[in-house]
Amino acid sequence: xxxxxxxxxxxxxxxxxxxxxxxxxxxxxxxxxxxxxxxxxxxxxxxxxxxxxxxxxxxxxxxxxxxxxxxxxxxxxxxxxxxxxxxxxxxxxxxxxxxxxxxxxxxxxxxxxxxxxxxxxxxxxxxxxxxxxxxxxxxxxxxxxxxxxxxxxxxxxxxxxxxxxxxxxxxxxxxxxxxxxxxxxxxxxxxxxxxxxxxxxxxxxxxxxxxx
Length: 212
Prior knowledge:
The chain has about 210 residues and is an alpha/beta fold. It has one domain (about 1-210): Rossmann fold (3-Layer(aba) Sandwich). About 20% of the residues lie in helices and about 35% in strands. The two termini are about 10 Å apart.
């Protein structure tokens, strides 16, 4: 599969690119035509810092942020995003205000929760929710339910990629419009399945597992 990977650079910052593998993939709730490898953006320090600079742009002028909640292994980017906002923020008190970076965990029922010692960083705090990708919207829904439960105040949602280019609630670097041929299906309506094409891999936030 890796041999099929292509890099699609971000137009306004070619140091940032998304690695894409075309195929027939399944997640826990959908079938998609491309696997998006976010590992370099999530783990490479130099690239993560560039990503954070891009993500910070919409917030520098007038958004007060107290906590960045990281989903899907985005903690490294989240830390640099917090640094960017503290350095360049112009909203009242931002420069003198610490920004916390946290990530929820899943309980035995699959619900997102925060450990007791993290709750004070959520309740009543102004929050940016940071996602690696949003394709079906279900992960965002779970995260928003969690933040509402703990009384967090959502300021905005940022994502490295979203399948919904017209959704103004999500500030994203890449969208489905940047990936030629990108499709997402409810499994029962998957055109690739109807054409008899076998699944290539099962994908999750951890990576992918090839079907053998």
